[in-house]
Every structure is written in structure tokens, then in C-alpha cells.
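Submission checklist for the structure archive. All mandatory fields must be present; incomplete records are returned to the submitter.

[x] Identifier: Malto-oligosyltrehalose trehalohydrolase
[x] Organism: Kocuria coralli
[x] Residue count: 650
[x] Sequence attached
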Amino acid sequence: MSTSQIARAHLDRFDLFAPHAAGVTVRIDGEDHTMIPATQREDHRPRGLDPRPRYAGGTAAGRDVSGWWTLPDSAAEDVPATTVRYGYLLSKTKDEGTDAEKAFTSEVLADPRSPRQPQGVHDLSCTFDASEFPWSDGEWTGKPLEGSILYELHVGTFTEEGTFEAAIEHLDELTELGIDTIELLPVNGFNGTYNWGYDGVAWYTVQEEYGGPIGYQRFVDACHARGLAVVQDVVYNHLGPSGNYLPQFMEIFTAGASSWGDQINLDAWGSDGVRDLILDNVRMWVEDYHVDGFRVDAVHALTDHRARHILQEMSQVAHETAARAGRSCYLIAESDMNDPRMIEPVDGNGLGMDAQWLDDWHHAAHWALTGEEQGYYEDFADLEALAKSYESAYYHDGSYSSFRGRSHGRPVDPDRNRPWQFVSYIMNHDQVGNRAAGDRFSQFLSVDRQVLSAAVLLTQPFTPMLFMGEEWGASTPWPFFTSHPEPELAEAVRNGRIGEFARMGWKESEIADPQDPETFASAVLQRAERDQADHARVYTAYRELIALRRSVPELTEQDFRSVRAVADQGQGSLVLYRGGLGRVAEGESREGVHGVAVVFNFSATTASVPVEVPEEAEQLWSASDAELSAGALGGAVVSVPAYGAVILRA
């Protein structure tokens, strides 16, 4: 780059989208600089962002830059090229009819696309040049979701230090376990010093307490060096309750509300700028931080009536950006719509997500393992629900949902959809943290039942995901926690949790105070306990089952037609057939058919379970002693101890 190009690049760092400002001043290290409309600069592309064909007007670069502000070339001599702190003052006119000729100037505001907030989300922004990081992953091309095992990780509670650097020290443990993909809970800037991450207000910022943007880059680079992919959880359906200054720059909200606050404006007046903010953020994670995928939070809360849905555009941006870098990328939606259009390609009029979380399977498995049937678990209080979800992904595929008070969902298409497109779990941040006490299975289930739950998770046909610490039955809870410094907001959060849990039947006395520092401290993993006998037994089961999953092709075969489940609610057993055994219909010959049968006993007594495999079938794994004897029609009967499981191969 020439000297003039370098100078211009330093100025472009401060480009700002503020379509309703009468004037913009950027304060850089205490010095004020007047900005000019970007339309005054020929062929200017704000912050080097990609042009997109959505725009009818715009510059020769193909992008409409109206509403953007930039620094004139004359400012190059006065603006430092090094790291600086900065903020914006917006001059706006009052509404017409109310002294429109008079103007006011805002307080100094952080950058809506701030790469760093060293002093928190209420303070000034700080520049950061992501291109300076010395990446060592030049040979990394990504890792497909199909065949992967995910591990959901919260940086702040994964280690005592709560940082990316500390997390790097434990990556080898994950690879030894058999994990190959880490799904990071949100890391963008939030109010306070610790948080789940879903109260983020600075989408482009990496929380400083975790290590900031450099710490994030080091973490991803270290993951790639070990063959680990990184999926970033992103939240575009709402913004946190404190530190959000976006409404002063653009129409970030529109009429209506979601479960978490004001509705993000995706399709009303001024929504082009909001969509740009989201789509360019997707591009940033892929380009600047080399992420391999996204988990997109609560997509059912993204209200968008445009002809081209925001999810379709996100899919296009993520895939094309990664392809330009020679890498792959995928998107996983958190969706409760039970609509396979979510995971179908854009060119087939799908929404373009590569996969989605599967709550139906979780709810059915949770009931089978725990017996809890309050709230939304009520619909799944029968082993037939788990059997159906094994075979069809969605339990509610047009059936009546008592929790919703209406019918819900539609079936997957086995010709178009594949099991790996559904990410399933027996625990995750929601299903643990959104319990009154944030208690894990290890706090109310026996070791036998924890081992059984590992078998349930790791033999299912979908993409499995573990929640950090699950692999050794961590005794630490993971309750909802916040650190809002504003007393009124802290009280509102407490009361909100009480109201939310009432529908699930939990008492106020059971609810952990999210603002109590001890609530956060209690969630930090304690690795010293892994060597204790019970925890070691759980860990051994996870490690063995992951290894088995990778070595037995029938356990990962990707065809819904090769999955069949037979439940016996009376004795609390279920047999899951995979591979050739999954394709054999009742009454058909099983002679010469190869496949796997997984037998689960969810009851407190020994179960004698008929299985469609010969008596001499190979026993690949069992949670405890299981005995096979001759059964009817050439099959066998397997005796499975209480809360046991056995994997057989014909």
C-alpha cells in the first residue's frame, strides 16, 4: 500500500453509519475531528465493507453509502495511526414542528462497530487492527459439522481465571476426550464483568475480561492447531438491557417485542442499516477471527417479512466469506419452529441454515432420564416420544403441543434432510441454567443414570453436543448469573427470573439470585474432582462411547430410514436400531442383516428386553453386566440391569 492508502485506511477505521445525524464529530484521544458524508467521497466503501446486490443505488463499488460518515483526507495529518480511544458526538435536528432549526449534540458515544471496549460498554471505544495477528492456521480449511462432536463452552466459567489463555491450557484434554468442535457461548461486549453472554450490546467487541480480541484470535489459532473447529454463538434477536446506544445511531428497534425486550428492526423503515450491522458482523467473525461456524440464537425471534429473509442473507455472507479464504463455514440455528425449511438451502427456498438445535429430542430424553414432566416436558412424558424423536427428529411434526396450546411443526423429509443437521444434547446452557438452581444431572441423578445418559446421547443419530463439565459429571451447578451495576436493573432481573420460572412450577425459594457473586462463583468448573471414583467412571463412559461412535459406522449413518426405535413403556425400556437393523420392518427377515442395537433400561429394576439380533451378537459396550439368551423368532433377550445400557452388533 502507498503512504496515502495507509493514511486513508487509518481514517476509514472511524467510518460511522448515522443516517439521521445533521453532523458528526469523532473525538480521538481527546481531539475533535469533523466528519463528512461518505457520499462526498467518490467510490468510498465504508470500512472496506463488501458491496451487496441488494442496493439499487450507490457508488461504483455497488454499495449505497448514504447515511455513512467518514473523515476527510485532510485529517490524516492529525489522526494517530496507532491504537487510540475514540467516540462520537452526533448533532441532530429536533422533529419537524418543534424548533427544527435548533440542534442538539449528543454525549460522546461508543462506536456501534467498536472492536474493543477496554473500560466497558458505557465508555469510549478503542481501535484494533485484526490483520496484525500472526495466524499459524494457513493450512486449516475447516471441519464439516457432519461427524463432529460439539462441546459447549462458556469462557468465564470454564476455568478459574475465566480467560481465553487459561482455556487454551485445557484444549488437549478435549481432543483426548474425542471432541473436535468447540461451541463458544457469546463473547461480545456486555454490561458488567461477568454474564452468560446473552445480554450483549456491543456485537463487534470481544469482552475484555475474557482477553479481548487478541485473546480470541489466540484461542482460535490454538484450537485449529489441535484440529478443533470453533463455532461462535451470536445473538441478533435482542440486545442487553444496559449499554445499548444503537438507537441513537439508527432504527435498531421496531414496534413489538420479543421474550427478551424490544424487537430488532429487520424489515421496517431504516432496517437496511440494521441488516448491514448484522451481516457485516458475520463477515467479521469469519475474516478477522477465523471462526468455522455460527450458532444463531433464537432465530424464531427474528421477525422478518422481507422477500429475502435475514437468515438467508447470513447464510450467503458466511459461506461466501469463508470460501474466499479457502475455508468452510456452517450455521446452526436455535429454532423451536420445527420447520425443516430452516435447514434447507437458499436456492431451494429454504432459510439456509446448515443445522439446528433439537429441543424435542432433548425434552424426550430428559423425561426418560429424570421423570420430570412439568412445563414443556409434559408433552414428552412417554418413551414413545423419545422413540419418535429418534426416528423423525421432531416429535411435534404437526401434533398438538399442550405447552403451546396448538398443533406445532411439520415432518422432516428423509430425501432432503439428514440426521447430522440436528444438534442434540442432554444438557446445555439453557437446559441447565434455566432451571431454578441451575442444577446438572450430577446433582440429582445417580452415577448409573449419568452413564446411561451418556449412552443415550452418544448413540443417537444426530450431531451430539456436550455441555462443559458434563463429561465427568461436574458437581458445580450452572445457574443464570449477571453483574449489572445498576441496582434497579439488578432487581428487575431477579423479579424477571421469578416470573419466568413460575410456569415451570419452581418456587421462588429455589431460585438462585443471578446478581449474587456467589451464584457466578458456584458455576466455575472444579477439575480437581475428576479423579474421584464416581467422576472418573462417568468420564470413562464418555471417552469410551465417543471412541465407539467414531469406530462403528452404523452409529453415524446419515439416513433417517436407517433409524428405528422400539419403546416398551411398561418396563421402561427402549431399543434403538441403527444401520441395516434400522431399515428392517416388522415381519421382514433379518437373516444376514448387519447393524447395531442399543438397549436402554430407564427403570429402577432389571429389564428383560427382546432384541432383533441373534443370541451370539457381539457386545460392543455395556454400562454394567448384561446377559443375552435365546428369544423368539431367532432373536435374543437381553437382561439389562437398572439404569443400564448395552450396545450389540449383529
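[x] Structure attached
Curator remark: Residues 52-62 have pLDDT under 50 and may be disordered. The chain has three domains: 3-109, 150-236+292-300+330-343+354-548, 555-649.
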